[in-house]
Amino acid sequence: MSERKPSNSGRRRTRVPLWRWRRNPVRRREDVLEAWLVLAVWILVAVGGTLVGLVTAQAADQVFARQRAERTPVAAVVLTAVPAAAATGTGRDVAAAEVRWTARDGSAHRGMTLVPTGSAAGSSVRIWIDGQGKPAGEPATPARASAEAGVFGTAAGLALSGLVLGVGGAGRWYLDRRRLAQWDREWTLIGPKWGHKTG
């Protein structure tokens, strides 16, 4: 019969839940402040981060929707030829060129905008104009706008959470410094008494 090794299951650490909130002789003022600080940090991260993310995402989605409503495509004539090797480096084969177009009210306009590389002078291209008749970028599709709004919302929520956690960490560091200073003062008073022999 094999010998059974003693199990460590009998040895349990005593944990007192929420000890900083309970009255006890070793609890200090800094412990209570830290408990409130930790609670405030997690509420701000959970509630504040979520709210900021949702508000930012909704605001970005409204901006994209307004751009889709205001911007319209028009036909434009390229006035300056664009060489095939004149890419902007944005990953798309486009380059800036001067174009001429007619606005919805019939007025003629000229300006610089991005056109496909290799466009010859006099060729027709499609450009986007805003509500004032000026060249503008192509608006995001609803699916792309939703994805980008989600990214903006997530980034805003994470940024607020990071800021709150940083402030909370600094607050806990300050409280730790105060505790250590207090323990040092108390040890200076009590420590020498432990060195004397009793009896």
Automatic annotation (TrEMBL):
Keyword set, alphabetical order: Membrane, Transmembrane, Transmembrane helix
Segments crossing the lipid bilayer: 151-175
Taxonomic source organism: Streptomyces bungoensis
The protein's name in its UniProt record: Uncharacterized protein
